Every structure is written in structure tokens, then in C-alpha cells.
Amino acid sequence: MKKLLTFVYCLGISAISFAQNDYFFPKKQLNPAIPTPEQFLGYGIGSHHTRHDKLVEYMRELDRVSDRVTVQKIGETNEHREQIIVTISTPDNIKRLDEIRKEHLAITDPSKPMPDTKKAPAIIWLGYNVHGNEPSGGEASILTAYYLTATEDPEALGWLKDAVILMEPVINPDGRDRHTHWANMHKGDPMVADANDREHNEVWPGGRTNHYWFDLNRDWYLAVNVESRNRLAFYHQWLPNVVTDFHEMGTNASHFFEPTKENAENPLVPKYVYKELNGRFAKYFEQAMNEIGSLYYTKESFDNLYPGYGSSYPDMEGGLGLLFEQASSRGHVQESQNGDLAFGFTVRNQLVNALATLRASLVEKENLLKHQRNFFSETIAQGQKFATKAYIIGDANDQSRNRAFWDLLIQHNIEFYHLAGDVTENGSTFKKGKAVVIPSAQPQFLMVRSIFDRPTTFADSLFYDASAWNLALAYGLPHTELKGSFQKGERVTKAELKPTPTPFNKSDYAYLIDWTDYYAPKALNQLLDNQILTKTSFKKFGIGGKEYGYGTLMVSVQKQKLSSEELYQKLKQISQNTGVTIEPVSTGFSTSGIDLGSNSFQTVKKPQAMMLVGGGVTASEAGEVWHLLDTKIGMPITKVEVYNFARLNINRYNTIVLVGGNYTALDKASAQKIKAWVANGGTLITLKTGTEWAIKQDIVKEKLREMKPDSSRNKVRINYEDFQASEGAKQTGGAIFEAELDITSPIGFGYTSKKMAIYRNNNTILERSTGAANSVLVYTQNPRITGYVHQESLKRIANSAAINISYEGNGRAILFSDDPNFRGTWFGTNKLFLNALFFGSNISSGGQFGAEEE
Ligand SMILES: [Zn+2]
């Protein structure tokens, strides 16, 4: 017998009550033995926001009561929330899941016989709630799982027979719970639809992002965050045919499903995906939404260019990624231009599209399976025919960064190999063991191209996100293309990701650490934590038959608090912890350059750093700094709320970081406070609009390169409807540029090449500093390497400063026009930031002679 459960939606002052199953599943036969979400949770879906732990409990309850369902844990978030996959299919399929998985992978491997597409099930991945404060997805996952477990509807039973449904109910549990608590703790009774209510206006940083304030819907490709890494490992075990990605957008919008904007499709993806599959699936979403009377739109916005969305990554893996965007009630009910928008209504739109996805996938099942086979055989064939037969990549001076890049390749299941011997190509030599070769002819050829391609022309000049995502440049690794045949050594395996620092002997004189290693700052941090007196070299030198560059760390055995034996033991530990090689020397007399007792070795001060957060500060940039220091360095940074700054004693810090954002929360007195603190010896590090703020507040005497006054007034007239596109085209939404670095400056320490790639996604442009040595990093004459940039912007960027040092009294500001830590991926520019952090207090207007007195 069907049990009707009622719950109440409060829409402003009017209350509508109806049966929950009737609202979400009208006229559907449902097994009463399966607990409804309302029975289990104690409230109706849509009347409250479900905590992640309760959602997981409900899924486990379905697993317990039904043999259609199995729940597995694929990992944990930073805040120790479970990441789960709920697998739903017929009991028979559930029993032989691993067998099905292996048979499915055979479809993706053209060297194996093609399984019978009539019999083989489709693998359908329902992914939800990558943005934490877009909660209708997660709630819809609860209803979808309930429906598929309880349904007795013949059509739905057919889906279970012919598909394995892998549901990831919440892609971003930490962010979702931030928003869940916010919405629940502010819920009124009666509910308040007024958009001004606190319920509808989260405080900084909001629930969109994960623990480190990263957008996980950019991270499928970058694979920086633990959530993505756990997912990718599982994803590549299954390679699903269809993947959904449920989002929310502005409250005044309606609903969006694919197709996305024309001319904004990834050129590497087979046209069949966009032209055929997207169109055919859209028919089912159209029908589902028409049936419940919901408004929607398609084609006007969103793009499939960037391969790191949940809705685009699957297109690169022989599947079909689907984006859904639902107007957000952001809270339980909110007024909108379409009337009051109730949470339950937003959940229902997501639910019907999840079910429509299943309906479409099963009708298209054979086409999807055949597409996946064709995709991989054609991808491999394309790779074979491609002019570039392989890419070689690696930095002979930095095995840590090499390994980080190998790790990225392994996340995407890309095949790559050690070199068979040293290779010289296009004037560069790559050393065996320090570089790898990545063949084009492989199933992951499209990912390989994404990592190395450098497109500069695009069909459209408006981008939803970045227009460049070359990861070889982001990691700052020397690389080249091989046009002819090539030799390869052993395939690189996961086991090789573990660092193996060279063991070293005890010294009674001194130890040296090369600063070129990516993790040298981590080692330095541990030295300083252990109060080990450490110096850094402002000049090059040669000793013991080896040449050492700028920034080399030196630990002399004398003058330490530890005995020589204790010091040796501690250094061995630090080398093990960080993977950084430490070298003993028995003399201070160099064969070239400065000796170890030179004044050009300066003592490094431990950074006591704080960063302003909250208010108008850009959360993602602050999160990148936090993530870098937590996960790569192991150094704490104090996060200070901007609204507390005025009453804070800042003298306990020697370093302040201002990332991009507006600092309107800081008054004139606060700006003066920072200025006085700098003059007193502090190091101020600013990024992007943080740099603009420091200049406009007169904290530093630098200059921005402003837009020239508009000489074309009234000359060019454009239509109202084209205005947005025309203005948008002038924004630099994310492109990669070339800049030249002063590698003798402490900001350039550890770099061996003057030319470097940097990422720009903003319009802050710095004039060169007046001091001849103060513009440490400068954009080159024709700087664009890859990505879209408007010609006017390109002219303004050329020859501008990317980093200026500005001296103020006894202190200094280090001003970045860009973000060197972008999305946790720019291993190539992280060290610029870390140099500012660790060596900031060693930088003075007197250069390296500042410390000398006669
Ligand atoms: Zn979203």
C-alpha cells in the first residue's frame, strides 16, 4: 500500500501542503518497504537542507535494505567527510560488478574484441553538487537514489537491467555542509523569501568551494585537490558513457540544459558529441521539463572549451558530459522575477532531468557504447598520424617538479616512459632519468594535446573561464616536440612518485642545499622551525667540483644550537621528509665565486606571515596561498579577517600577504598602518588588485598602466545587444604570457632560465619601477604564448612589469601584477611567491652590499 506523506512548503505567507511522493513522483509505483527520504530524515526533501552525514546514512540505509544498491567509500575530504559512490543496478548486475567493469573497459580498448553492444550495460555516472552552495543537486540525488531503489515501474526496471548507475551524490561535501548549516541556521518559521534576508546571503567565503576555497569544477583536469584525485582514480576504473553535472545559477534565471553556446566547443572533442548526442539528449530534457511546466533555455551560454569541468572532462574520455544549471533558491524560498522560488521546486527540476538522462541514455545505449569504441580507436589513430610523434619534458635541475608532473599524467592515465638515453632536440638536451617521453599514439592522446597545445585563435572571444590550460607551461618544465621516430625506456609507474633523496655523509664544516628543487622552501621551513641557522647565497660559487646557483642554502656546523651529530640527524630527517638532497662540504674555500664565509651569504629570517581574508578579498587566491603553504611547505599562515585589521597589533608579523580583491573594508588609517609597518622593516606581498590597492593607497610609489583615454568617443557605435560581447572581448580571462626574470634577484632565486611562462587572468598592468633593478619580472615585447587576448590589451601588457619591488624605509613591498599560485597548478611560478615570503626581509635597496660595512 502506498503511504502518503505530507509536508509543508511555505511560500511567503501562503502555505501549500501536498504529498511529497506525489509531487516528486506522480503516478509512480513505489515499493513501500523502501524508506522514503522523509521517513528516514524526518522532514520532506526541499523543506530543509540535508547534512552530508545524513545523506550518506540514507544511502547506506538503501544499501542495507535493497540488493539493487551498494555504497562504497572512495575517499575523504580535507575535513574528513566521506566521498561515496552509490551504485544502483539490478541485483544480478550488482553481484557481478567487477566482471561488468572489466567487460566495459574492453570497449575502450580497440585491441580487444568488441563486446555485444546489445547485451553490454551502459555506465551512467550521476554527479551532483560540485559547488557546495548549489544544493538542489545533492537533494535530488537522495530522491533519485530512492526512486531507483523503490521503483516498480517497468521502464525504470529496464534502466537498471541495461545500465550500471554510478552516483556521486556530493562532489564537494565540505562546501555543501558550509552552505547547509548556513541555510538551516537562518531558516525562519514562517520562511522568509525576502532576498535581503541573511539566509540568502552567505558570508565569505560561501559554500561554493572546498576546504581550501578551490573551485572543484575546474579541478577535474588539474587534479590538485584530494576530492578530484579520489574521483579520478575511480573514474578511470569505469570510464562511464554519460556523466551529469548538476549546478545552480542566479535566482532570477530559469533552468539550463545542453547544448551549450555554439563556437565554444573544445576542438579536440569529436563533433559527434556536440552535434549528435547533445541534440538527441536535449529532446528528453525538453519533454521532461515541458511535462512539469518548468521554463528553461539552451544554447545561449556556458561552454565546453575547458576540459576540467565535470561536464567536459567526460567528452575527452569517450563519454558524454552533461551540464544542468538550475536557478538557485539559495535558501528555502526566495523571491525572484519568476515569483517565489522554492527549494523543493529547484530539486524537482534536477530530479526530472536526472531521470530524463537515464531515459535518453538507455534509448541511445548502443550508440553510446559504439561511440566510446570509435572514440578510442580514432584517438589512437589520430595520435599515430599526428605530426608530433611524442613530447619530451623534464627539468634536469628539479626532480621534484618532474615528479609532480608525472603524478598529474598518472591521474589522467596517460602512458609515458623514461628516456632510453640522453636526447638533444631543437637545441635542448634532456637527460635520461630527468625527463620523460610521452607518445602521441595512445588512448589519452586528447589529454596529451590539452597539456601541450598552444592555441591562439578561437571562434569566439568570450570565455566562461580560461582560454589557455597548457600544463607543460604551468609546471614550467622545459619540453619539446619530436617529429621523427623515437626510443623509449621503461614505462613510468606510480611507485616512482616517491622521492628518493641521495643519502649523505656527516660534515664537520657545512651543508649545502640547491634552491632549484621545488621543495627546497619546504626544507628551509623545517630548518627554521628547528632553529637551525641557515644562510642563502646572493652569488654563484663552485665547491667540491659542483657549481651552485643563486639562493643556495648553507648550514654551517658551527654556531648551531645542536651538536654536529644532532644537526646531522636532523638534516637526514629533513631530507627524508622533503625529498630534498643535502650535500656535505668539508671546506669553505670555493674553487670559483664566493667562499662560504662571504657577506654575500645572508641569514634567512623565519617568516611570521599573515594574510588578510574575508570582506572583498578574492577567496580563491587566498585559498591558493593557504593551500600552497599547507600542502607544499608545511608552514602556518595566520588568516586575519579584514574587518579585524584596524584593531590588530601587527608587529608580531614580518610578512603580510594581500591577494587580489577589494580592500574597501580597510580605511585610510589601516592603509597608513600598513605603510608604517613596511617602513619599519616589514615585507608586504601583494597580488593583482591587491597590488592596485597598495598603489592607490599610496603605500608604495609605483604606477599602474592605465587604459588610454578613449579617443574613439562617438566614433564606433554598436547595438545595445552587442555591447556585452564587445566589452567582454577586452577582458583577459586567462591566457599564458612570456616574461623575463632577473635570476640574480632574491625573487628569481632557484630559476635557471630567464624566460618563463606566467598566467594572467586580470587587467592589472604595472608600469616598470623607477629603480633600475626593481622590476624583477617583465613581460616581453610580444608576450602572448597561448590563449585569447584582445589586441589592445596585448599592447598594454607588452613590456609592463609582472613583479616590482618597492622600497619603503627599512622595508619593502613585492608587487605581483598576477597570481603566481593559480589554481594550485602553477608549479612554475610558485617559487616567485615563496622567494618573496622567505627572502623578502633579505631584500634591500642596497642590494647584496647592504650588509657590508667598512
Ligand atoms: Zn555550479
Query: What proportion of the residues form beta strands (DSSP E)?
Result: 15-25%
Distinct compounds present: zinc ion
Q: Which regions have little confidence, pLDDT < 50, spanning 5+ residues?
A: 1-18, 848-854
Strand order within the widest beta sheet: 27-26-28-29-34-33-32-30-31
Question: Mean pLDDT, as a whole number?
Answer: 94
State the helix count: 24
The 3D shape can be described as: globular
Q: Which structural class do the helices and strands define? A: alpha+beta
Main sheet: strands, sense, barrel: 9 strands, mixed
Rg over alpha carbons: 29 Å
* Distance, first to last CA: 98 Å
How many strand units? 34
Residues in helices, as a percent range: 25-40%
